[in-house]
Amino acid sequence: MVRDEIDLDAGLEPTVPVWAVFGDLMAGMLGAFVLILVCVLGMQLDLASRLETEMQQRRAESQRREALEQALAGPLAAGRVTLNNGRIGISGSVLFAFNSADLQPGGRQLLKSLAGPLGAYLKARDEILMVSGFTDDRQMRDGARLFADNWELSAQRALTVTRALIEEGVPSSSVFAAAFGAEQAVASNGDAEGRAKNRRVEMAPTPRPKNAPDAAKPRE
């Protein structure tokens, strides 16, 4: 009989207490909640960091434009140049005769007045100046074809302005030329007024490349 009682007890399966199952469930839910919270906080921190970076960039750009406006206050007030989104614009007719890359006296005088303020601005902010030449979309005429095409004309005009600025004291390491031909028009080429606006030279200060030589340091 004792043996039968032992066999009966051996056939019973042990039961897991309810509180232990509940505890495991709560622990799992808490772990999931903590994981979600960490992810949300991480996303918020990343978003806050991006917003702060963007605000700093906007403040820097605003300060940059204000400094450039102050440097060019005289020419801007006289209407001899324009300033749009940090780009200094000069009408092509002010600098050059039609289909020519030779500076007119008034154009050279204007560049002379710009060289000092621009040079000081570039030095103070450690930036370089991109001088860009643009034309309208009309092809070179055979009778006055001094240049192969508009690309060559815009390139030569940009180089002429660049050299003039260097002659007036802007360090050669702080200025370079670029040609755009008839690309990036600012007005319609369908009428004379629009074409005149497209024939222009623009100058835009840009950050100095990291590996570029410092203009303030003498070259060895």
Provide the descriptors you would attach to this structure in a database record.
220 residues; five-stranded mixed sheet; 7 helices; 54% helix
Widest beta sheet: strand line-up? 1-2-5-3-4
- The secondary-structure class comes to alpha+beta
Q: How many beta-strand runs?
A: 5
Overall morphology: elongated
Q: Gap between N and C termini, in Å?
A: 110 Å
The low-confidence parts are 215-220
Write down the Rg.
35 Å
Strand content: 5-15%
Largest sheet composition: 5 strands, mixed
Q: Please, how many helices?
A: 7
Helix content: 40-55%
Let me know the average pLDDT.
82
From N to C, what is the helix and strand string?
HHHEEHHEHEHE
Can you tell me about this structure?
The chain has a five-stranded mixed beta sheet. Mean pLDDT is 82; it is low at 215-220. It has seven helices and five strands, in the order H-H-H-E-E-H-H-E-H-E-H-E. The protein has 220 residues and is an alpha+beta fold. It starts with a helix and ends in a 13-residue tail after the last strand.
The gist of it:
The protein contains seven helices and five strands; from the N terminus they run αααββααβαβαβ. The chain has 220 residues and is an alpha+beta fold. The C terminus is likely disordered.
